[in-house]
Design goal:
The complex is a heterodimer of chains A (366) and B (172). Chain A has 366 residues and is mainly β. Helices cover 15% and strands 45% of the residues of chain A. Chain B is mainly alpha-helical. In chain B, helix 1 crosses helix 4 and helix 2 crosses helix 4. Classes of the chains: A mainly beta (366), B mainly alpha (172). Chains A and B meet through helix 1, helix 2 and strand 27 of A and helix 1, helix 2, helix 3, helix 4 and helix 5 of B.
C-alpha cells in the first residue's frame, strides 16, 4: 500500500467515524462515577489512617483519653451492644445511638459538603460521641451518605473507627424498611432507617474485633438481600456484595498476591468469600484494605493503595487470560508481574509503584 | 477536587467527548458500547484528574483507558458476541430491512470491514491511520513491540484491500 493509500484510508476513516453523532456528553454521570472510583481509593487511605489512629490511641491511651482510655481489642463474643434510632425530637443529623458494654455512643452526620477537609463534595463530617468512645465528641471525615440503587444499603467503606470501636453507617434505598445486623455473640441489631439531610441512613457500633456475621435488608414484602462482610484481621468489617435469597457468593479462601521488601516489607493478600473480593496491603504497621464486590467474577478491576509514606502498591484483579501485568513507572522503568490465582479466581496482582504518574496495561496470555 | 480542576475536567470532557466516542466506536463498532466505554474512560480520568492534568496529556490517558476498556469488554463478550456473515433477523419487513442495510452499507462499509478484523489489528488501524499515532506510540498504547505494530498493520491493510465490499467501493 502506498502513502497515498494510507492517506486515503485516513480520510475514509474520518468520514466513517465522523458520521457518528454521539449523544450529549454525560459529564455529570462521568463525574459521579469518577467520584465513586475516587472514594473507593480514598477509603483505602482512610482505613489505613484509621488503623494508624487506632494503633496510636492504643499505644498511648493515657495521653489521649486518661482513665477512659480504650482497652484491648474485644475477644469475639464477649461484649454487649444495643442500637436505637433517634426519637422525634432528636438533634439534627443524629443517625443512631446505643451502648457498648453499657457505655453510650452516638453518631451524628453534619450537612453534606460541610467542610470535610480533603474529601471534596463526596465527603461528609461525622461526629462520634459518648462514653464508649472515651467521652469527648470527635468529628471525622467520611464518605457522604449516598444511595446506590444497585444495593439496598450502601455501607460506607471508610468505616469510622475510634479507639476500640468501629462504626458502620450507610445510606438506605427507599424500599428498605429495616436492616437486621447479626453479630458473633448472637445479638441481632434491628436498624431502622432515619432521614438525615434528605438521605435515609442506618448506623451501628460494635467493638473492633467483634465479628459482624451478616446484615439483611427487608422491605415490607420480605427479605431483599443479605451482605456478609469481610471481617478483616485488624478487626474491622467491610461490606461488599449483597446477595438475594438463593444467590451464592464465592467460596471462602485467601492467598498472597504480592510482596516486597521496600519500606520494611509489605505483602498483599486477596480474601475471597461471600463479600466478593477484598485485598489487604499491610505494611510497617499500616493496614489498608479495600473490597470490591465480585458481582461478575473475573471482570477487570483495579485498586490503588497508597499503603504508607513513600510506599504505594497497585493491587487488583486483571481479566481472565491475562499473561502479564505491566506497569510503566515514572522513572522510565517497567515492572512486569505474572497474575496470581486465588481459589477460583485468577488475575490477581500487587505491584509496588514509584511516586508519580503510571501507566498500567495487561497483555494476553502467551 | 477543587472547583477549578472540576471545571477544567468538565471543559475537557465536553470538548473531547465526540472524538473519544468515535475512537471507541472505531474499536467496538457499536455506538452504544462506544459511549459506555467513553464514559468509563472519562470517569477514570476524573478520578485521577489532578495527576492526569499535571501530566499534561489527558488525551493520551483517556485514549489508553479506552483501548484497555475495550480490550477487557471484548474478552468478556467474545463468546457472547460472535461475528456472522449475514445480519441477524431484525423483525423488520424484508424490504425495510434491505433498505436499512443498504443505507448502513453506504455509510460505513469501512466500519463493517474493520469489525471483520481481529481486535488488535482493528486497534492498530484506528490508532495508526485515524488518530495518526506513530508506530512507537501505537506500540506503547497496545503494550506490544513496534515490530508487532508493523506486522499487524501490514496484515490488517492486506485484509482490508482484499475485503470484497471495500474493493467494490474502490478501496482496494
Amino acid at each position: 500500500m502506498r502513502i497515498d493509500d494510507e492517506r486515503d484510508l485516513h480520510e475514509q476513516l474520518e468520514a466513517a467515524f465522523g458520521a457518528i453523532t454521539p449523544a450529549p456528553a454525560p459529564v455529570d454521570g462521568a463525574v459521579r462515577r469518577g467520584r465513586v472510583i475516587k472514594a473507593r481509593r480514598r477509603a483505602a487511605v482512610a482505613a489505613g489512617a484509621a488503623a494508624v489512629v487506632a494503633l496510636a490511641v492504643l499505644s498511648v491511651p493515657a495521653q489521649r483519653h486518661g482513665p477512659a482510655a480504650p482497652g484491648p481489642v474485644t475477644q469475639a463474643g464477649h461484649y454487649a451492644v444495643t442500637v436505637q434510632a433517634p426519637g422525634p425530637h432528636a438533634a439534627p443529623g443524629l443517625i443512631a445511638s446505643g451502648t457498648i458494654d453499657g457505655k453510650g455512643w452516638q453518631l451524628t452526620a453534619a450537612k453534606p459538603g460541610s467542610g470535610a477537609p480533603g474529601t471534596g463534595s463526596r465527603g461528609q463530617m461525622f461526629t462520634t460521641s459518648g462514653a464508649a468512645f472515651g467521652g469527648a465528641a470527635t468529628a471525622q471525615p467520611g464518605q457522604a451518605l449516598t444511595v446506590y440503587s444497585q444495593v439496598p444499603v450502601w455501607f460506607s467503606d471508610s468505616v469510622l473507627t475510634r479507639g476500640p470501636v468501629q462504626v458502620q453507617y450507610g445510606a438506605v434505598r427507599a424500599d428498605v424498611t429495616y436492616v437486621a445486623a447479626r453479630l458473633d455473640n448472637g445479638t441481632v441489631l434491628i436498624l431502622h432507617p432515619v432521614a438525615v439531610y434528605g438521605v435515609r441512613a442506618v448506623a451501628f457500633a460494635v467493638p473492633v474485633g467483634a465479628r459482624i456475621v451478616d446484615a439483611t435488608a427487608y422491605s415490607r414484602h420480605g427479605q431483599i438481600a443479605t451482605a456478609t462482610p469481610f471481617n478483616a484481621p485488624n478487626g474491622v468489617a467491610f461490606f461488599g456484595l449483597w446477595l438475594r435469597p438463593g444467590q451464592h457468593g464465592l467460596a471462602r479462601t485467601s492467598g498472597r498476591i504480592g510482596s516486597g521488601t521496600a519500606y520494611g516489607g509489605w505483602s498483599a493478600t486477596a480474601y475471597l468469600g461471600p463479600w466478593g473480593v477484598c485485598i489487604r496491603v499491610p505494611a510497617t504497621g499500616i493496614t489498608s484494605a479495600q473490597c470490591t464486590p465480585a458481582a461478575s467474577p473475573g471482570s477487570a478491576g483495579l485498586l490503588f493503595y497508597p499503603a504508607g509514606k513513600g510506599l504505594s502498591v497497585m493491587a487488583g484483579q486483571a481479566p481472565p487470560g491475562t499473561g502479564w501485568i505491566v506497569v510503566n513507572q515514572p522513572d522510565g522503568t517497567t515492572t512486569k508481574r505474572r497474575p496470581v490465582t486465588v481459589g477460583s479466581q485468577s488475575g490477581f496482582f500487587a505491584i509496588q509503584v514509584l511516586p508519580g504518574p503510571h501507566q498500567m496495561t495487561w497483555s494476553e496470555l502467551k | 477536587m477543587n472547583a477549578k480542576l472540576d471545571g477544567e475536567f468538565r471543559e475537557f470532557m465536553h470538548a473531547r467527548w465526540p472524538v473519544v466516542v468515535r475512537l471507541a466506536y472505531g474499536l467496538t463498532g457499536d455506538q452504544g458500547h462506544a459511549e459506555d466505554v467513553a464514559q468509563a474512560a472519562f470517569a477514570r480520568a476524573y478520578a485521577s484528574w489532578p495527576r492526569v492534568s499535571r501530566a499534561g496529556d489527558p488525551d493520551a490517558y483517556v485514549r489508553q483507558i479506552v483501548v484497555n476498556e475495550n480490550r477487557n469488554r471484548f474478552r468478556r463478550h467474545r463468546v457472547a458476541e460472535r461475528l456472522t456473515d449475514s445480519p441477524p433477523e431484525s423483525g423488520l419487513a424484508a424490504a425495510a430491512w434491505a433498505d436499512t442495510t443498504r443505507r448502513y452499507e453506504d455509510r460505513s462499509a469501512l466500519t463493517a470491514a474493520l469489525q471483520r478484523l481481529g481486535p488488535r489489528q482493528r486497534a492498530v488501524i484506528v490508532l495508526r491511520y485515524w488518530i495518526d499515532l506513530t508506530e512507537h506510540e501505537t506500540a506503547a498504547v497496545l503494550n506490544c513491540s513496534v515490530g508487532t505494530v508493523k506486522s499487524q498493520a501490514s496484515r490488517a491493510l492486506a485484509t482490508l484491500r482484499q475485503d470484497t465490499e471495500l474493493v467494490d467501493e474502490g478501496f482496494g
